[in-house]
TrEMBL record:
Source species taxonomy: Bacteria, Pseudomonadati, Pseudomonadota, Gammaproteobacteria, Chromatiales
Start and end residues of each BioF2-like acetyltransferase domain: 182-297
InterPro entries per UniProt: Acyl_CoA_acyltransferase, BioF2-like_GNAT_dom, PEP-CTERM_FemAB-rel, PG_Glycine_Bridge_Synth
PANTHER family per the UniProt record, alphabetical: LIPID II:GLYCINE GLYCYLTRANSFERASE
Protein known as: FemAB family PEP-CTERM system-associated protein
Native source organism of the sequence: Nitrosococcus wardiae
UniProt xrefs under Pfam families: Acetyltransf_6
Length: 356
C-alpha cells in the first residue's frame, strides 16, 4: 500500500522517511510524540480517530512519519463526504486546530506529500489543514478565524484584576447573584445548556453520543463545569486539558444565563480553578472575525492570534465557505432559531455530523 512505501522525494533525508497509518499497536508511540512535540495540540491526539469514526461514521487516516523507528511527525485526517457540504479531507475535522505536527522538515514534507496523494486518490474537492502557523506556504490560506490564548498568573486574584474593568464587573455580578460552579460527572446538565444555546444561535446540535465518546476517549483530560443557581442549571462548559493548557471547547447557557451573567461567571470559574491546578495557558479557542464571540473574548483582555486554514484544491476551484457568515445560510439559520428545542435536538445531529 502507498502508505508503507518510502516517500519518493529527491531530498536524501526525506527518502529515508516512511509514512504509515496509525494502528492500535502504534497508539502509544503516537501519544508519546504528541505529548512532547511543540507543534502538537490536543487535536492531534489519537483519540480523535475513534471519536470521528464512532460518533459520525467518517473514515479517518491518521498518518505518521518515522525514520529508523522514531516518529518525527503526525497528521490526523478525516474524510467528510456530504451532499450538502461537499467532499473534503480535513486535519482535523470537528477540531479548531490540526495540520502537520513535526520535529523535522523531512517528516513535514513526507506527510504533506502523502496527504496530497491521498486527497487525489479519494477524489475530494479539497484538502484542508487547520494550522496555527503558516506552514504550507504554497497553498491558499483563509484568514477568517483567530484564536485567543493567554498566560495566567498562579494567583487567581491577579487574574481577576487583569480582566478589563467592564468585563470584571460582569463576573462580579455573577458572583453577587449567588451562582455556584461544580465539576460535573453527569453530562445531562451540560447537554441541556449546550443544546439550548446552539439552537438559539441557529446551529445544529451534535449528538449525545459524540460527547459520550469524547468522555470515554479522553477521560480526565475532558471535564465539564456546570453553573447553577438554587439548583437550576444556568450554564455549562466542556473543556479539554493538554499539557499546561485548558481549552473551553463546547459551552452554553439556559435562558437565565444572560440575566445572571452565567457565562461570564462560568469562564471566570474555569480560569480560577485551572490556575490553582497549575494550568498556565487559557485557550479561549477559535472565533470568526467580526462576530459576537470575537468581541466577547477581546473584552476579557485576550488578543486575537490569526489561524491559518490552508487548502490544497483538488476538484474544487476555490476555497470552501461553510460558515454562518455565508449569506447562503442566513435563511437556514433564521429558521433554525425558531424550531422547538426538542425538534432541533432530533434533526440537528443528522446535519451536524457533516459539519466537520
Amino acid at each position: 500500500m502507498w502508505l508503507k512505501a518510502e516517500s519518493r522525494i529527491n531530498d536524501i533525508e526525506t527518502r529515508t522517511m516512511e509514512v504509515r497509518r496509525l494502528i492500535p499497536e502504534t497508539v502509544g508511540r503516537w501519544e508519546a510524540f504528541v505529548e512532547h512535540c511543540p507543534e502538537a495540540t490536543f487535536f492531534h491526539r489519537s483519540g480523535w480517530k475513534n471519536v470521528i469514526e464512532q460518533a459520525f461514521g467518517h473514515q479517518t487516516y491518521f498518518l505518521y512519519a518515522e525514520k529508523e523507528g522514531e516518529i518525527e511527525g503526525v497528521l490526523p485526517l478525516g474524510h467528510i463526504r456530504s451532499r450538502l457540504f461537499g467532499n473534503a479531507l480535513i486535519s482535523t475535522p470537528f477540531c479548531v486546530y490540526g495540520g502537520i505536527a513535526a520535529v523535522s522538515q523531512a517528516a513535514r514534507t513526507a506527510l504533506e506529500k502523502a496527504a496530497e496523494e491521498l486527497a487525489v486518490q479519494l477524489n475530494v474537492d479539497y484538502l484542508e489543514f487547520r494550522n496555527r502557523s503558516h506552514s504550507q506556504t504554497h497553498w491558499p490560506v483563509k484568514e477568517l478565524y483567530v484564536t485567543f490564548r493567554k498566560t495566567m498568573d498562579p494567583d487567581p486574584e491577579k487574574n481577576l484584576q487583569a480582566i478589563p474593568r467592564k468585563q470584571r464587573a460582569m463576573v462580579r455580578k455573577g458572583i453577587q447573584a449567588g451562582l455556584v460552579s461544580e465539576i460535573d460527572d453527569n453530562p445531562e446538565r451540560f447537554i441541556a445548556a449546550y443544546s439550548e444555546s446552539v439552537r438559539n444561535l441557529g446551529t445544529p446540535v451534535f449528538p449525545r453520543k459524540y460527547f459520550q465518546i469524547i468522555g470515554k476517549e479522553f477521560g480526565n483530560d475532558c471535564e465539564m463545569l456546570t453553573v447553577t443557581k438554587g439548583g437550576r442549571t444556568i450554564s455549562s462548559v466542556l473543556s479539554f486539558y493538554f499539557r499546561d493548557e485548558v481549552l473551553p471547547y463546547y459551552g452554553g447557557g439556559t435562558e437565565e444565563a444572560r440575566r445572571f451573567k452565567g457565562n461570564d461567571f462560568m469562564y471566570w470559574e474555569l480560569m480560577r480553578l485551572a490556575c490553582t491546578r497549575g494550568i498556565r495557558i487559557f485557550d479561549y479557542g477559535r472565533s470568526k472575525k467580526g462576530t459576537g464571540s470575537y468581541s466577547f473574548k477581546k473584552n476579557w483582555g485576550f488578543e486575537p492570534e490569526p489561524l491559518f486554514y490552508q487548502y490544497r484544491l483538488v476538484k474544487a476551484d476555490k476555497m470552501p465557505d461553510i460558515n454562518p457568515l455565508n449569506p447562503k445560510y442566513r435563511l437556514f439559520i433564521a429558521l433554525w432559531k425558531r424550531l422547538p428545542l426538542p425538534v432541533a435536538n432530533i434533526i440537528g445531529p443528522q446535519i451536524a455530523k457533516n459539519l466537520g
